[in-house]
Amino acid sequence: LAGTVPEEPRCTVERADASLTYSLFLQRFAFSRPVILGAVTDNSAFRALCTRDKLLASFGPFPVRLSTANTYSYRKVDVPFQEYVEHLLKPQDPGRLGSDTLYFFGDNNFTEWGPLFQHYVPPPFRIPGTTPAYSFGIAGSGSGVPFHWHGPGFSEVIFGRKRWFLYPPDKTPHFHPNETTLAWLQHTYPTLPPSQRPLECTLRPGEVLYFPDRWWHATLNLDTSVFISTFLG
After folding, report:
1. pTM for the predicted model, two decimal places
2. CATH hierarchy code of domain 15-232
3. Which long-range contacts (CB under 8 A, 24 or more apart) does 130-134 make?
4. CA distance 41 to 19
C-alpha cells in the first residue's frame, strides 16, 4: 500500500517511567534533550472517545482546518470533518510533495473540540513560565510533517504508531521544506553516516514524547493515527 512503511525497532531516545520526579525531569530533560515517558498518565477514557464512530458522531458536520504537510504550512483548507475522514484520510502517496498534501493537526476550534479535550489527561510536567495549549490530529499511514522547530512540548499517540526523528538546535538536518517525511526517509536517511543520523523512536499508544525548545523534529505516522500534543508556549 502507498505510504506503508516498516517500523524501525531501534530507539535512540532515552526512556523514563512514572518514577521520574518533576525535579529530575527539570534537571535531566526539560532544557537539554528529549525523553519518552511511559505510564505517566492514563488516557483510556479519552481514547474511548476518539474512535472513528465516536468522533464522526460528535464532529462530523463541523469544519476542520487542514494544513499543507510541509515545513512552512501556510496554505489552509477548511472541510467538514466527515469529508476529511471519509475521503481525505488515506495513506501518503510517495510521489506527492508535502506542499500538495493536506494534514489535519492543530488549528482546532476550541468551542467545538473543547469538550473532548476536557477528557484528556496531560503529562504531569510543565516548564516554568509556560502555558499549555492542545493540538489534536488524525492522519493516514505514511503521512507526517517534515523537519521544523518551535517551542517545547509533549506529544502522545492515542491510536496507531508514530515515528519521530529529532536533531538538537545546533545540528540543522539536510532536507527540502516541501519534501514529505516519507520521501526523506526513503531517499536521504539511507545516505546519512551514523554520526549524522537523528535521534529516533516509534511511539505507541499511551507513550508521550517530550521535546525541548528549538529541537528540530519530523514525524511519520506508521498507521492511521490519532494523536495530541501539548505545546508549552
Report:
1. 0.94
2. 2.60.120.650
3. 130/232, 130/233, 131/232, 131/233, 132/230, 132/231, 132/232, 133/230, 133/231, 133/233, 134/108, 134/228, 134/229, 134/230, 134/231
4. 12
Domain boundaries, the chain: 15-232
Question: Which three cell numbers, joined as nine digits, stand for 41?
Answer: 498518565
Q: Which of 57-61, 102-106, 151-155, 188-192 has the lowest mean pLDDT?
A: 102-106
* pLDDT score at 4: 60
Give the separation between CA 118 and CA 120, rounded to whole angstroms: 6
Q: Which of 77, 120, 124, 122 shows the shortest CA–CA distance to 102?
A: 77
Q: Are 127 and 232 in contact (CB under 8 A)?
A: yes
Beta bridge partners of 166: 199, 217
Taking alpha carbons only, the member of 3, 184, 187 closest to residue 92 is 3
